[in-house]
Amino acid sequence: MGKLTDQEQAAVERARGAQDEMLRHTERWAVINSGSRNLSGLAEVGAELADAFSDLPGEIEMVDPAPVTAIDDGGKEYDIPHGHHLHMRVRPDAPLQLLFTGHMDTVFPVDHPFQKLHWIEENAVLGGPGVADMKGGLAVMLAALRSIEADPAAASIGYEVIINSDEEVGSLSSAPLIARCAEGKRAALTYEPSALPDGTLAGARSGSGNFSFTVHGKSAHAGRNPRDGRNALVAAADLALRLKAGMDDTLSVNPAKIDGGSPNNVVPDLAILRVNMRPVSTDDQARAEALVAREVAAVAAEHDVTIDRHGGFARPPKPMTPDMEKLFTLVQGAGRDLGQEIGWKATGGVCDGNNIAAKKVPVVDTMGVRGGAIHSPEEFLIVESLAERAALSALTILRIANS
């Protein structure tokens, strides 16, 4: 372990000392089903979080979700209801401004069989929905901030906290809030679980865009006058193949589903193509946008159909910029001084760190617990990592303040 100042040692010990409380918080929050579409469960866990975070010296508000729409199987646009998002602002006039983010939702809906906590290894490894992703991470965030609030340096540190209710479904209703709160921040920490159970951080991330292409053709009798029809299903399939052909090493294109069609004796006049794209860089995202525009126009002309596009790149790519690398190196050094060997790796996964980085704010977005098997009924939390990662966050915050 490296040498810590007396100030740093005190902050680290306060954070570590909250181990039992962090575990209690994690257990309390994880037993409440907060699947992204379970609005009552999100409201319940949101109230619990607001109560816990009220220990910090800032005003908490539950922010209305921004409007979000989608395209149904019949090609019609409809509204998707979302839960409220927790927002807190502390010392907005302080010279240093930071952003801390997390999410209260999980991937497990209210009718999913994975609802209960269980010990995989007694007092060491806890299994349960969201224990790693990310109820444990929220407990770590709170413990670290409480430790900082007990430090004399707190007066010079201002920050905002966002805990959104829709991260697992793309953060579409919280994206405006994230963008607004990221403005002007020196740095941001997000409490997704570590990329690997050994504590490895996620570094650069690809972006992600979800699209629905609604193809309108013309129906006709499949036997009597098929040439009078304009087959929307064939046009959608052609578009899927053309977009897939644009895939390369730095742009993933995944045509995932075609809805629509008709009975066998009718030329189908409607089809909806669903596609996900993942660009590694902003240049790759621009190429993807050009690919979409070009191939939509070509297919519409060749098949004599109309095509409406819905969706876009909700998660921009997160490259490893010099400012980002500087922050990662600071976190790595803090970890080393705590006896934690921490590396980072690029990943194709996405999170709110993508949206924060798009505002030119350096962010480390895997400051949460060590665990694994997230998004599955085998999800687990390594309990000792609560104290480890809270100490890491507290030390990181102090070193950002003193840098």
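The record above closes out task 2.4. Task 2.5 opens with a second protein, given below.
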Amino acid sequence: MADIPFPRGVRDLMPNEALFRNELLNTIEASFQRFGYLSIDTPAFESLKVLNAKDVIGEEAKLLYEMKFEDIGLRYDQTVSLARYMAMHQSLPMPFKRYMIGKAWRREEPQKLRYREFTQADIDIVGSSSPAADAEVIAVPGYIFESLGLPYKILINDRKFVDGILGSLQIKPEMRRPVMRAVDKLDKIGRDGVLESLTKLGIERDVLAKLDSLFNLQGGNEEKLSYLEKLVTEKEEVAHVREVLSILSNYNLKGTVELDFSLMRGLDYYTGMVFEFKLENHDYKGTICGGGRYDNLIGVFAKKSMPAVGSSIGVDRLLDLLGFSSSMKYTYAQAFIVNVAETNYMYALRVANTLRANGIAVELNSAKRNISNQLAYANSLKFPFAIIIGDAEEKLTKVKLRNLITGTEASLALKEAIDIIKKGV
């Protein structure tokens, strides 16, 4: 109904969409579990003191949904909640590998593939500063995208590299954050827009040219690292990223891995390596997964340093890119049981119970309707099979199994029907 108000930036899911989403989440969760990540859960809202502590979200705090009359707000992402969680549960064995799949909320302007309520699938490794941890949180989503048939590339940078580059160009420390914010908008406003923004910040023309050259440096990853090594003082960080790349190569990922010195993300809490996944050969140029190292965030709450690195998959964006609204699967059930007459219902119920006991999901008719309407219902929900039960089937303790895809049917013993349904259409 047109007169029913509905919030912007959120959506209802139809049964086929919700089923597709659940199966995608199961795929993601199974991948997380294969790598030994532990499941945790945190509340949908946090104290505003946590969300605003030392500007952990930074300038995007304006996007928080705050609860009226209470000092709490809906979580903006899952990383801040994890930082608070780790500070409160410091007895956990380290390194602590956790995954969490849940919703977050941001009060931003809705646009294509960007919602105010969205689901994130996160993994994090807390308590390790090893390049192996960095490589693993990149490799896991890589395997997930491969299992979904999505070609991708991985862009990698390091926040310390950016500081080193800006320092080598004599850009003052207080100007570095504004410069990073300008470069971070490259995807939105393009190269010319970034250069214009940097000009407005007062960056001189010769420095601008050098920045443009460095942020668009061509060549292989080792060439870029070697060039950077001569330019910056952060030699240990160069060695760290070089080892991350070496470890990643042993995961045999199908996607390309590219160092991109213009990559910026999470300016308010990422401290080292950052990365993003982009689709290859696709019209959509946004990010489908991102993350990085945030070694200072947990210390805001824990009063001691805890190194951490993680990645986050944007589930809603992924659903749209996978075309989930076109999915033809509406039900988990493999068969719909039709009772020809009301007197056949009890036998139909026993058949349903037997099928379920054998691991087959079925739906049993629960309304007073004739056989034609029951079959029309089964076809509308794309059931692969219908089991028709009338007086003849009940008398012979058999079932009539109809393949709703091919239209063929046969009178069978229940065990035979079970075997056929398990094999599928």
